Amino acid sequence: HKKYKIAILPGDGIGPEVMQETYKIIEIIKKKLLINIQTSEYDIGGISIDKHGIALPKKTLIGCEKSDAILLGSIGGPKWDILPPKERPEIASLLPIRKHFNLFANLRPSILHKKLNYLSPLKKNNIKDGFDILCVRELTGGIYFGKPRIEINKKNMHYAIDTSIYHKYEIQRIAEIAFQESLKRRCKVTSIDKANVLYTSKLWRKTVNKISKKYPKVHLSHLYFDNAVMQIIKNPNQFDVILCPNLIGDVISDECGSLTGSIGMLPSASLNTKNFGLYEPAGGAAPDTQGKNIANPIAQILSLSMLIKHSLKMNHISNLINTAVYKTLLKGFRTHDISHDKNFVTTKEMGNEIVKSFIEEL
Ligand code: IPM
Ligand code: MN
């Protein structure tokens, strides 16, 4: 029997709570489907600063290196917001771990099922048929990593600098991912940029156009960022794969995720070229709901599903998890973020219901 190793990094905020619910699914996969999964937990983020004085310890990196994939909870919180930018958990752990493993390809699927379309904040006639959008976000380049970065650190300094830089190869490889993914779907790619203003966007557009020549079956279009935000709200169903630079993808994926009802249901996969990946909810630490047993565990559970699909290559199990989540929602179970009234279940109850639905699928 093949043995799979998953490094689990619960992190901060609601991370540990929603991770507990995800463990329940892992247990069922081990016990009922007899898949040999070995999990090991490591510290990251604010909690790691508190425990070890460092946001991304060597031990965590080594543990991740020895694994087939990483399942991450979330990182950051108000407690560490007072730290200088360089020491903040996000900058000192999340960005470096993405860079360390070269996780340039960030996949964020936002699906609104037709039968659940009333969960969306959009008016019903705009989303009659639901939607199924895959955001492909470049994750290790652009303004997040460009140098120089200069913060205001002197008393009389009146400026700060971030640098946006894209190399051709960085655009080529993420565009390839978007086109490849679209072939498995509806063969449509919309690339988003600000090519009317930014030089990096001009290079982006030109490079994506070149790559598209290899994919004659795929319909490619380009939208400016401001217009794209609007078009997505007006009619999300017209989109299939959306390809974005790093910062633009950060915004667009939150937008698409929230149109499904809550970004508490938005999972993500960050991949390198070797199917190695880090899987995490896209919504973040949500410190305001931390410790109240009300957070939505769906994004974390769907992130596990993506891990099983992309890194462990067990599509059928991934599909079973997705179906279990969908069925649990169809049965009417709602956490507070997707409930329209005072009737909502706790994090643990939602987890248990998804486990029940999962077992029904086996
Ligand atoms: C995300 C998050 C991160 C990002 C933050 C926490 C650094 O918002 O994964 O979308 O901006 O990439
Ligand atoms: Mn984000």
UniProtKB/TrEMBL annotation:
Keywords: Amino-acid biosynthesis, Branched-chain amino acid biosynthesis, Cytoplasm, Leucine biosynthesis, Magnesium, Manganese, Metal-binding, NAD, Oxidoreductase. The record marks Y144, K194 as: Important for catalysis. One of its GO terms (biological process) is L-leucine biosynthetic process. Its cofactor is Mg(2+); Mn(2+). GO terms for cellular component: cytosol. Its EC number is 1.1.1.85. Belongs to the isocitrate and isopropylmalate dehydrogenases family. LeuB type 1 subfamily. PANTHER family: 3-ISOPROPYLMALATE DEHYDROGENASE. Homodimer. This is 3-isopropylmalate dehydrogenase. It comes from Buchnera aphidicola.
